[in-house]
Amino acid sequence: xxxxxxxxxxxxxxxxxxxxxxxxxxxxxxxxxxxxxxxxxxxxxxxxxxxxxxxxxxxxxxxxxxxxxxxxxxxxxxxxxxxxxxxxxxxxxxxxxxxxxxxxxxxxxxxxxxxxxxxxxxxxxxxxxxxxxxxxxxxxxxxxxxxxxxxxxxxxxxxxxxxxxxxxxxxxxxxxxxxxxxxxxxxxxxxxxxxxxx
Length: 198
Ligand SMILES: CC(C)(COP(=O)(O)OP(=O)(O)OC[C@H]1O[C@@H](n2cnc3c(N)ncnc32)[C@H](O)[C@@H]1O)[C@@H](O)C(=O)NCCC(=O)NCCS
Ligand SMILES: Nc1ncnc2c1ncn2[C@@H]1O[C@H](COP(=O)(O)OP(=O)(O)OP(=O)(O)O)[C@@H](O)[C@H]1O
Fold this sequence. Notes:
By secondary structure, the chain is of the alpha/beta class. It has helices spanning 13-22, 30-36, 43-52, 65-72, 76-100, 114-117, 133-144, 148-156, 161-166, 178-197; strands at 2-7, 26-29, 107-110, 125-130, 170-173.
């Protein structure tokens, strides 16, 4: 069974992914793949440098993620350029990893931009991690050291909460404690598992 997992920035997707892994799911993480395809020395990074200039490299030759983030979350056209390089490479890797998963596995695709992609209906079910905007902002400021402007520009670059909830088979509300979250994720997996073995 293939399940899409999405949620706004800092809604708690990665936390839900780790709980799902502990519960035995195979998780394919688009954010992680988006890092791998532009790792030091890759053709992907070369294309990003061609588009954005060598100033987006650190002295060690890695992509300076904070610098690229500052550029693309302030300018939609530049964000589209970056996405046009990174997304097809991520998509290729997703296909490869999916082919390697067992037919009986619960395969969860953690895709931050699933609502934006128009691909939600290619999954057997979609889990949306949901938290009010104020909670997302509070977590970004508290845990990532971002400024209010950084936080708001990422939220502005994403689909609305309503757009995400509209594609959900299951909404996981993440306004409570981590224990509440774990309970809710376990409940959703219990509902998914019988469907997976049918
Ligand atoms: C701009 C980059 C370099 C910033 O890196 P940084 O380490 O600060 O953030 P990270 O990659 O960990 O992403 C954190 C969160 O930001 C949000 N985000 C990332 N890219 C985008 C985007 N293109 N549009 C909207 N939100 C985004 C997501 O909620 C994501 O979970 C990086 O996010 C990137 O390469 N983005 C383009 C690729 C992409 O679209 N990735 C998202 C899904 S594949
Ligand atoms: N229920 C919760 N209570 C308190 N903190 C939480 C809760 N859920 C998640 N967090 C914290 O909020 C932050 C954001 O969570 P997480 O990294 O899982 O979000 P994300 O949706 O994966 O973010 P991104 O879109 O940036 O990848 C993390 O520091 C995480 O530990």
